[in-house]
Predict the structure.
Amino acid sequence: MSIPNITGILKDLQINPVNQGCSTGIHWLHGNKTITSYSPVDGKPIAEVKLATDANYDSCIKVAQEAFRQWRLIPAPKRGEIVRQIGNRLRQHKQALGTLVSYEMGKSLQEGLGEVQEMIDICDFAVGLSRQLHGLTMHSERPNHRMYEQYHPLGIVGIISAFNFPVAVWSWNAALAWVCGDVCVWKPSEKTPLTAIACQKIAAEVFRKNNIDEGVCTLVIGNAEMGKKIATDSRIPLVSATGSTRMGKAVGEKVGARLGKALLELGGNNAIIISNSADLEASLIGAVFGAVGTCGQRCTSTRRLIIHNQIFEEVKRKLVNAYRQLKIGNPLDESNHIGPLIDKVAVENYMEAINRLNELGAKPVLEGKVLADFKSGCYVKPAIYEVENKMDIVQTETFAPILYLIKYSDIKEAIEIQNDVPQGLSSAIMTQNIRESELFLSHEGSDCGIANVNIGTSGAEIGGAFGGEKETGGGRESGSDAWKVYMRRQTNTINYGKDLPLAQGIKFEL
Ligand code: NAD
């Protein structure tokens, strides 16, 4: 298997050895502070980025405010046409961008390419949406009156994104925001700045070719402090923030304090219930991919398996067999299933969780450890533990490939265990029993934003609204009617008669 040539890929994506970390569109700005992006794949430095300063940030916001005045005047389907062109440029750069995602973030090449495909898909979705930004009409209680509602653009959308989907999350937000008539300022994760610079260059070039040079698509690379600026900035009516629950609580508080809108996409603690009527082969694939895909660093990763006690030992045995076949190594080599964690801090978090499990007396099925053979220090062994759901470590999202096994005897008990965590993102049941699956999907069932039957917790299509409840933040992105968050709703009542009747029959005569 040949490993892609990273030098050629960086050239294709216009990534230089030293890059500027702020873009207002065609102009690039930067400060003096520099960070280096290291690949978790081999520990090598990929390139440097000069971070955006506070002054650079202000320039972006001013240019964005100006751009919004013009962008909102362009008819939505014409805005959609520009998003269509961005989707086409992404098609041209899919291989290169997907490879850089894999090299900078550490996910498998297949998943890197899949992430870019998701960007292309959301662009296509947004193009269709650009002709469907419709409100309802209502019957008025007053004669000769007409009522309807319409949606207007909001202004600047601030996008704060996480490292694990370094490019797709931006596109989920940006493609929808753009067709809605908004402009965007993007603060990507400081752990994956190069993929963000590549995306900015791809999109900004399309805007430039359409004579929209500045402000619709802006980028500020910085750390959490830059994210805090976005959260507190009342020039930004909507902040869409993806990341940990800790970050979401901080952002939600700041946006709430100024009565802005926050769209929060935070951590998950996702479970699959495996019933005694489940198809075990399909369940196994769903569980293993969910637990080890992206090295357990998806918000929808499967963290818990809630298994019927009659099949518990059999599932455990099959899981161990499946895990023994997993190949860990360079994610750019397609024969490997699992790559590295994002960095050494993530490895420390993984080890802390393993130590805590041992302290609490969790039973190791496959013990976790750091794989010392790999130079980057970021590769770990996927682990499995038998646990109690109430253990503090089980209640917490550890962003690593650690899978918890929990026994149940009754379907209602299984649902209770599944819901008994602070997070509420994704959930699944594997069953061939329609009573069980319908109960799981009913109001007595899963309390998550995503509830699946006979597929795992991981991986979502862009057509549905994506997000979760409780400490996952309540936000919805991507498909269905998630676009409504990016617009302000206005109710209009029009009187086409000669009189001025008041609502509720109130009389007021002069
Ligand atoms: P993180 O919370 O450390 O960082 C996410 C982003 O927030 C980064 O850009 C970071 O710079 C910024 N940030 C951090 N603290 C901030 C603050 N106080 N104010 C403003 N901005 C701040 O998360 P991460 O480690 O990059 O990503 C992993 C987490 O993201 C996991 O919890 C995962 O479940 C979650 N995630 C959720 C979804 C979802 O859709 N629900 C999708 C992807 C990732």
Summary: The two ends are 87 Å apart (CA to CA). The pocket of nicotinamide-adenine-dinucleotide is lined by residues 160-165, 187, 189-190, 223-224, 227-228, 231, 242-244, 247, 250-251, 265-268, 299, 397, 399, 425, 472 (CB under 6 Å). The first strand starts at residue 18 and ends at 20. The chain has 14 helices and 24 strands.
